[in-house]
Amino acid sequence: MSSMNGPSPVDGKIVLITGASSGIGEATARRLAADGHHVVLGARRVDRLAVLAEELRAAGGRADHGHLDVTSLDSVRAFAGRAHDRHGRVDVLVNNAGVMPLSTVDALRVDDWNQMIDVNLRGTLHGIAAVLPLMRARGAGHIVNVASTSAHRVDPTAAVYCATKYAVRALSEGLRQESRDIRVTLVSPGYTRTELTDHGGDPEVRAAVHEMSERLGIPAAAVADAIAYAIAQPDGIDVNDLIIRPTGQG
Ligand SMILES: NC(=O)c1ccc[n+]([C@@H]2O[C@H](COP(=O)([O-])OP(=O)(O)OC[C@H]3O[C@@H](n4cnc5c(N)ncnc54)[C@H](OP(=O)(O)O)[C@@H]3O)[C@@H](O)[C@H]2O)c1
């Protein structure tokens, strides 16, 4: 897919991206801005968002950014509301923000469990709550939820992470079934080289998964390309389920 096939700047979409300060969210912002969409970047590290937005604008793209903590419904509503006020519509929400502090269930790292539930699941729900009424009112829109291959298989040390991603998959399918006007896409990456394994969880598990990710991982741009593909389809064509993983992942 080349950006030649994307919409021109004139018909580009207003695309909100959560967790755009690194990894898959950042790569998605780069790809969609290059395709001619107007990207609205959200995350907690606003300094990184500001640098990225400036870089995209300098390259001829359209981008703005704002502070966003997806664990707070007020924060997500304010983020989406500002974008709607400024642009008059929200065409696409990419619910991408996520955390993965891994450990065995026996370790009882309850704070980590709650963080994964709050960011990965509640954060995705907050995003939907913030944009769904706006999209329903227009009778059009697209919600892209970033899950994981962990939404399709369970592995030791990832029980709670998988539980949140399975939940996002169930949520996406339910929303799809209830929608005749809004497109719903679930994007499930496998090992991808990002900052996801840089923080949290059991240090030994984190080191092992980090090593695996560095050895096997695909670039974040590969996932961004899949998201761009789903967004580029005509309104009547709903790409629902995409799994993108390294050939060597097994
Ligand atoms: N990398 C992989 O192998 C892989 C595989 C499957 C699925 N995924 C999924 O891909 C998505 C993106 O992760 P990534 O791999 O790109 O990791 P990453 O580089 O660590 O990016 C995670 C993003 O989420 C944001 N975030 C975390 N907590 C947040 C909060 N409370 N509010 C707003 N933003 C928050 C971070 O921004 P701030 O810290 O600045 O807020 C960051 O931009 C996640 O949903 C992850 O589960 C990744």
Overall description:
The protein is an alpha/beta fold and 250 residues long. It has a single domain, classed as NAD(P)-binding Rossmann-like Domain (Rossmann fold), CATH 3.40.50.720. It contains seven helices and nine strands; from the N terminus they run βαβαβαβαβαββαβαβ. The strands form two sheets. It has a seven-stranded parallel β-sheet, with helices on both faces. It has a two-stranded parallel ribbon with strand order 7-8. Helix 1 packs across helix 7, helix 3 runs parallel beside helix 4 and helix 4 packs parallel to helix 5. The chain is globular. The N terminus is likely disordered. It binds NADP nicotinamide-adenine-dinucleotide phosphate.
**Name of the CATH first level:** Alpha Beta
The outline comes out as globular
Bound molecules: NADP nicotinamide-adenine-dinucleotide phosphate
The radius of gyration computed from the alpha-carbon positions, rounded to a whole number of angstroms, is 17 Å
Multimeric status of the protein: single chain
What summary fits the major beta sheet?
7 strands, parallel
- Indicate the percent of residues in helices: 40-55%
- In the CATH hierarchy, the third-tier topology is known as Rossmann fold
Q: What's the total count of β strands?
A: 9
- Tell me the span between the first and last alpha carbons: 25 Å
Order of helices and strands: EHEHEHEHEHEEHEHE
Low-pLDDT sequence parts:
1-10
Can you list the strand order of the major beta sheet? 3-2-1-4-5-6-9
**CATH 2nd-level architecture:** 3-Layer(aba) Sandwich
Percent of sequence in beta strands: 15-25%
Helix-strand makeup class: alpha/beta
Tally the structural domains: 1
InterPro entries: NAD(P)-bd_dom_sf (IPR036291), Sc_DH/Rdtase_CS (IPR020904), SDR_fam (IPR002347)
EC number: 1.-.-.-
Pfam families: adh_short
Organism: Sphaerisporangium rhizosphaerae
